[in-house]
Structure formats: C-alpha cells, structure tokens
Predict the 3D structure of the following.
Amino acid sequence: MGKQLKGASANTWRSLLFFYNKCITLLFALFCAGFGSAVRATPLISPDTTVTIRGRAYKTVGTPLRTVKLYLCEVWYSVYGTRCSEKYVPIDTTETDPMGGFVFKGIHKNSSEMHGIEFAVYDSTHLPEVQMYLSNTRLNAKNLRDTTITLYLEPYICTGVIDDKKIP
C-alpha cells in the first residue's frame, strides 16, 4: 500500500508541476500580448505633425545653385542602404533663391511609407530622365524633424551591372 501512495504521490507532484508550468506560461503570454498591443496602439508620430527643412544648395564645386527648382524626393532603401529602384517620387518642390537657399515647409512626417528622402534637381521643368543631380545628403524619414542642412548636388549617372560573359 505504501508503494502505491508513493507512486501516486510522484504522479500528483508531476501533474501539479506541469499545471503550474502551463499557468506561468499562459500568464507570461498574456502579459507580453497586452503590453505589446498597448505599445503598438500609441502612435510615435502624430499624423498632423509637419516639419520644415531649410538650407543651402551648392554644386559639388561649391557654387550656389541659383533659382533652380529643387525637388524633395522619397526613395526606398533596402537594409544595406542601396536603392531598391531607380525611380524617385517627388513629394514637394521649391525654388532656390539667388544665394542657393531653400525652404521646404509643411512636410508631413508620415504622409507615406517612405524610408529615405533625397533632394534632386532636374534639367527641365518636367521629370524626364535627361539629367538629374542628386545630393549626398539622405534623411531618414522616421527620424525627420525641423532641420537646417547644406546640400552638395552632383550629376547622377545611372550605371547598371552588365555581365558580358556568355553562359554556354
């Protein structure tokens, strides 16, 4: 009879420990789910927040870009910083003053799901693929705030990777 109680006791302790383990796991899962959804529910950036970007635009040789149309473009980047496509989507445009100064006002922080912002100058009033000048300054759209920057724009030459080896 004693052996049966000892065996039943071991099974009882094993069952209680198993039940305790499941309860703790359930409480931890509910805790994580509750705090995870609470953090996601509060927006980091309010939808009506706007920023102002001002500064001066120069050519790479240091001369100011006078009275040119400057485009603020959104661009998608992958994890390692290379562009995902060659297309730039202008979100705003402004004209530089005679000293190369510019101001972009009222840019909504989360107007789109952009990953980065670049500045571009095109040779004509439209957006053809004629000649484009890009800045060396890239802004992270997630951390965008009122800022003053200096842009040095250089000609953008689109180079593709062409492998001239023929596969047998």
Notes: The chain has a mean pLDDT of 69. The chain has two domains: 1-42, 50-156. The first strand starts at residue 50 and ends at 59.
